[in-house]
Design brief:
The complex is a heterodimer of chains A (341) and B (205). Chain A has 341 residues and is an all-alpha fold. Chain A is built from 17 helices and no strands. Chain A is globular. Chain B has 205 residues and is mainly alpha-helical. Chain B has a two-stranded antiparallel ribbon with strand order 1-2. Classes of the chains: A mainly alpha (341), B mainly alpha (205).
Chain lengths: 341, 205
């Protein structure tokens, strides 16, 4: 391991101490007073994005803080490493670029106006979203993309002809997965690190699984074939054979590595009648597994990935906590949303 | 003499004939109105059952709002902006139908397309679908309520007309007919006496 990579890992350990401690974050669920919560948040990296307690009631400010803190921390990681490893972390964060591409394609396919606010402020890791947003057609947009993994998948989607949006979503997930895997393979220290590969494959597996489950929620099965050979074979088999989402969750619950995720979502089904907690449950699951593998080998590239996953999980939880308060959710409910497993 | 429903009364044979014709016309009108009233009552009774769909619609709306609240908490407005990229405005057609001569408005949903994709937050997908379901129910309920409202208005108006005709207009007409008949009978008797007197005077000469 090179000294620069070693330094980056040690630095990530230092940066980890800047994250909001678990107990503090959970206790915020019960802080009803904006003033008190604002003074708590002011001590964190999210503080500068809120001018006063009244900003805690503004969803746009909350989303901006969430995106900007996450982007800044991710760029901090990519600036600490060089070469293939830096490329990998850029590829990892490309999910936000891809999310923006998805939104641009939606507006082109559905002929709806693309407001600036419809795009995420976190972007520019592997694609120049500002340029792509000016495309007049999906074909033109695909021509402007320079990343082969994304371009080839979108071309294949276009060749199908019907511009099906469910297929588009799964296609972009596949493109993301292929991009991340190929960039990890290209960097020798990452390729050789067992814990890193465990976390990465688990993370990508959850990304595909969540999309697959939501395709089932919509009753669409045929685009799931895109995940063949990419998603865990057991999970893939379940998605293909399940009658509906609930059926798939019950089957996934029988597999140890999916048990917690499936149980949590099935619980939300019981309480609300909908799997509304799916994304949060997946994030929680990824974070738990990443911490488990990442701390096994603390001085390895796996820790950098664990740190980035922790950064995202913290940002998601803070955003959820603040938005839940605006939505009027009770403290207990907010606590359940933001707690660790 | 004058009356509110008849106007200025002219106690002549011609006026009496016209009044009798009018009464017979009014009586036929009352019968027709009574038939309309009975039909409207039947129609309103049939709608009472359908009015209960409002409860379902309200329940669905409450569920949809609860899901929207959860979607807002877990996904935020950015996800809503994304969902808005997929949405197209609901298209409806408004027309007026006639139910026993009563014009009732009817809204028909021509297009209510819920487009969701797997990349949308699960709570947003659920909320969008529930909201579309609730909107459909609310429109059905609005149609039934509008129909019921118009029928009830028309029923009240018909009953007012029947009562006015039966209790006021026709009795007034009949009273005036009776009055004119009496006046004409009196005039006839006077005329008879006048002729008799004239004949006796003429005979004496």
């Amino acid at each position: 391991m090179g000294s620069r990579l070693r330094y980056a890992i040690v630095r990530a350990h230092g940066l980890k101490t800047h994250l909001v401690p678990e107990e503090t974050l959970k206790s915020w669920a019960f802080v009803g007073d904006d003033e008190a919560l604002f003074s708590e948040l002011a001590k964190t990296e999210y503080g500068p994005f809120f001018a006063g307690p009244e900003d805690l009631r503004r969803a746009d400010k909350i989303e901006e803080a969430h995106a900007r803190v996450m982007a800044r921390r991710a760029r901090q990681v990519t600036s600490l490493v060089t070469g293939g490893i830096a490329e990998f972390f850029k590829a990892y964060m490309a999910k936000y670029d891809l999310e923006n591409i998805r939104r641009i394609i939606y507006s082109l396919v559905r002929a709806t106006a693309l407001e600036e606010t419809a795009l995420l402020p976190i972007q520019g890791f592997v694609l120049d979203v500002a340029v792509l947003a000016k495309a007049n057609s999906v074909e033109q947009l695909v021509d402007l993309i320079r990343v082969e993994e994304i371009k080839s998948q979108l071309r294949r989607w276009l060749a199908e002809g019907d511009k099906d949006l469910t297929a588009l979503d799964l296609t972009l997930d596949v493109a993301y997965r292929d991009l991340v895997v190929s960039s990890a393979q290209a960097a020798k220290p990452l390729r050789k690190d067992g814990a890193f590969n465990e976390i990465l494959s688990l993370y990508l597996d959850r990304v595909l699984l969540v999309s697959g489950l939501k395709a089932l929620l919509k009753g669409e099965r045929s685009p799931l074939t895109l995940f063949e050979g990419r998603l865990d074979p057991a999970a893939y088999k379940i998605l293909r054979s399940a009658e509906d989402l609930r059926d798939a969750l019950v089957a996934l619950g029988r597999i140890e590595r999916y048990r917690h995720l499936a149980t949590e979502v099935l619980d939300s089904y019981k309480k609300v009648g909908q799997p509304w907690i799916l994304e949060l449950a997946a994030y929680r699951d990824i974070s738990t597994w990443a911490l488990r593998y990442g701390t096994k080998k603390p001085i390895s590239p796996a820790y950098l990935l664990t740190y980035l996953i922790e950064v995202e999980w913290e940002a998601v939880r803070i955003k959820t906590l603040l938005l839940s308060r605006i939505a009027g959710l009770t403290g207990d409910r907010v606590y359940d949303l933001v707690k660790e497993r | 003499m004058s009356s509110r429903s008849v106007g200025r009364v002219v106690p002549t044979k011609g006026f009496l004939i016209r009044l009798r014709e009018r009464v017979s016309f009014l009586e036929r009108g009352v019968e027709a109105l009574k038939m309309k009233r009975d039909q409207l009552v039947k129609e309103a009774q049939a709608l009472i059952k359908e009015l209960k769909i409002r409860e379902d619609a309200e329940k669905k709306m409450v569920e949809a709002y609860e899901l929207l609240r959860l979607a807002y908490a877990t996904a935020g407005p950015s996800e809503a902006s994304k969902a808005a990229l997929l949405a197209r405005p609901m298209r409806t057609k408004m027309r007026v139908r006639s139910v026993i001569g009563v014009e009732v408005p009817e809204i028909e949903v021509r297009e209510l397309e819920v487009v969701t994709t797997p990349s949308l937050n699960a709570a947003v997908i659920a909320a969008a679908e529930k909201m579309a379901e609730a909107l459909n129910e609310i429109i059905k309920s609005a149609n039934v309520e509008a129909r019921f409202e118009r029928i009830a208005e028309s029923l009240a108006e018909t009953m007012r007309k029947v009562n006015a005709l039966e209790k006021l207009v026709i009795p007034e007409h009949k009273e005036i007919i009776k009055y004119i008949e009496e006046v004409l009978e009196e005039e006839g008797l006077e005329e008879f006496l006048r002729v008799k007197k004239y004949k006796s005077v003429k005979g004496r000469e």
